[in-house]
Design goal:
Blueprint: H1 9-12, H2 16-21, H3 33-39, H4 59-69, E1 73-78, E2 84-86, E3 89-90, H5 97-103, E4 114-119, H6 125-128, E5 133-139, H7 149-152, H8 158-161, H9 167-174, E6 178-180, H10 184-187, E7 200-203, H11 209-221, H12 227-243, H13 250-277, H14 283-298, E8 301-302, E9 307-310, E10 331-336, E11 338-339, E12 348-353, H15 360-379, H16 386-403, H17 411-415, E13 431-433, E14 459-462, E15 465-468, E16 482-485, E17 488-493, E18 496-499, H18 508-519
Parallel strand pairs: 1-7, 5-6
Antiparallel strand pairs: 1-4, 2-3, 4-5, 8-11, 9-10, 10-12, 13-14, 14-17, 15-16, 17-18
Helix pairs in contact: 13-14, 13-18, 15-16
The protein binds glycine and manganese (II) ion (2 copies).
GO molecular function: aminopeptidase activity
Keywords: Aminopeptidase, Hydrolase, Manganese, Metal-binding, Protease
Protein name: Xaa-Pro aminopeptidase
Length: about 525
């Protein structure tokens, strides 16, 4: 008979303190009163030295627009918090992009922080001067040597993580007033109620579950709205915050230029490494290592998982396992971007002939993808829509596929909404906003994104490709296992589109010359 599964009393007598003490099963932590006393003495000052961030000059305008959209409401924008990777190890922290946008903070700043926009009192001098909200940045105070957390908290304690920014430092960096995040619990409910004139809450609800739960609890206690209404309010807020990032300001354009320059350096490093790794097991990883090391050296990190796809991996749209061997004669598709410290990322794809020269079929496919990209570029005029870019790209691809005898129906039938057969070889999108997120502004409405006019300040990619899977029996054998994508980053200006990534070689001749040049700079 199976053993009883009734838990023993000793098994269920676990409280939080027991859990915390469990750490002593594997690492013995000193905890005597003598030790505690000893650890707070004999330390010299250790100031975290900081300067105002360049972004701090831009966040006032961003916050003003946000406030004008939601007058009278308390707006809650969490940074997010550490996420456990396993037991007491966390993933590297990256703040939510909306938080980064509205505070101007980047890198790993700041876990557990919350930006709150509090509505100003109507009739107050602030309101009379046109101000709608007062911003407050709630942050965890420094756990320096004067605190017990100094040596107890492996997340905040400066014994563990080194000097970090606290209230004073983050205020200098952002220009925003700061407050201890422990006070958020009390502050969040101030003035909230069911009446029209009471303060109403809106939160970016997908960033930090604990804060969303708090917001929902306050709404319920104060009889403010039903849970479903709360979700709808928050979703509108998320949509607005996403669309607000579509047109980049001068600071953001500058950061994007840096991200693209660092990405070019990363591609240079890949090409220098390429000759020595051809034929080696896991050589895709070796090239990934070259790019990602550069991303950490020049920026914050990669902006998304690098795609290093050689041979039959190239038609796999998001091949990020990168575990394959780069073989002589392969086409090597690399889609990678450096995220700079401000968290803006590039998104660039180039496809290289391993060995340095495109063979005729590779060249034919590659040049068709370039032609499609050029058509997309020409369609991207101020006032045109994303859909216009899409249709221009697709017309070129469908036409060539038809000429090659691969697309068996007419070009017009395939391009019609009822057809779309050519999408078998290009099932993904071919243009998207780019910025703090690689797929930026993702919560925007259709009418603000695909269906909207492209306006000056927007940064986006154009990334056509052709993807012939190795087992695609509908294409001639010489096409099978070939994937090509070319992706560039573009800024729309008053005078038309600017290729921000123009410095990254692209034509057949330029790519071959670039590979030859880098091969000699290992
Ligand atoms: N790297 C993802 C994309 O190109 O959209
Ligand atoms: Mn892209
Ligand atoms: Mn990409």
């Amino acid at each position: 008979m199976a053993e009883s599964t009734t838990p023993k009393e000793a098994d269920i007598d676990i409280n939080e303190q027991d859990m915390a003490d469990r750490v002593n099963n594997r690492t013995l932590r000193p905890n005597s009163a003598t030790f505690q006393e000893f650890m707070t003495q004999g330390w010299g000052e250790q100031e975290a030295s900081v300067e105002p961030l360049e972004s701090s000059k831009y966040i006032g305008a961003r916050l003003a627009k946000l406030g004008q959209r939601f007058p009278g409401e308390r707006l809650i924008i969490p940074a997010g918090d550490y996420k456990t990777r396993n037991n007491d190890n966390d993933y590297a922290f990256r703040p939510d992009s909306a938080f980064a946008y509205y505070t101007g903070l980047g890198e790993d700043l700041e876990p557990g922080a919350i930006l709150v926009l509090d509505p100003v009192q109507s009739g107050s001098p602030q309101a009379q001067s046109g101000q709608t909200h007062q911003a407050m940045l709630y942050v965890h105070p420094r756990a320096d040597q004067s605190t017990r957390d100094y040596y107890r908290s492996s997340q905040y304690g400066e014994y563990w993580v080194g000097p970090r920014a606290g209230l004073k430092e983050l205020s200098i960096m952002t220009g925003l007033p700061t407050r201890d995040s422990a006070l958020f619990d009390k502050d969040i409910a101030q003035g909230v109620g069911p009446e029209n004139e009471a303060v109403h809450l809106r939160a970016l609800r997908h960033t930090d579950e604990a804060i969303t739960a708090q917001v929902e609890a306050v709404r319920k206690e104060q009889g403010q709205c039903s849970p479903d209404q709360g979700v709808a309010l928050d979703n509108k807020f998320e949509e607005f915050a996403s669309e607000a990032r579509m047109e980049k300001d001068a600071y953001e354009v500058g950061e994007m230029r840096k991200a693209i320059a660092a990405t070019k350096d990363g591609f240079d490093k890949i090409l220098s490494r390429l000759p020595e790794v051809v034929g080696l097991p896991r050589s895709e990883r070796m090239l990934e290592g070259a790019f990602n090391a550069n991303a950490r050296e020049e920026g914050n990190d990669v902006g998304y998982g690098s795609i290093i796809a050689s041979g039959t991996h190239a038609p796999i749209l998001h091949w990020m396992r990168n575990s394959g061997t780069v073989e002589e004669g392969d086409l090597l598709l690399i889609d990678a971007g450096v995220e700079v410290n401000s968290l803006y990322t590039a998104d660039i794809t180039r496809t290289f002939p391993v060995g340095g020269h495109f063979n005729p079929i590779q060249k034919q496919i590659y040049e068709t993808v370039l032609e499609a990209q050029q058509a997309g570029f020409e369609a991207a005029k101020p006032g045109a829509t994303y859909s216009d870019i899409h249709h221009a790209v697709m017309r070129v691809l469908a036409t060539r596929l038809h000429e090659w005898g691969i697309l068996k129906v007419s070009v017009e039938e395939s391009l019609s909404p009822q057809g779309q057969q050519h999408r078998r070889w290009h099932a993904c999108g071919c243009a998207h906003h780019l910025g703090l997120d690689v797929h930026d502004c993702a919560e925007a409405r259709y009418e603000s994104y695909q269906g909207a006019a492209i306006t000056p300040g927007m940064i986006f990619t154009i990334e056509p490709g052709l993807y012939f899977k190795e087992n695609d029996m509908m294409v001639p054998p010489e096409f099978r296992g070939i994937g090509v994508r070319v992706e560039d980053d573009i800024l729309m200006t008053e005078n038309g589109p600017e290729w921000l990534s123009k410095q990254i070689p692209k034509s057949v001749q330029e790519v071959e010359a670039w590979m030859a040049e880098r091969a000699h700079q290992a």
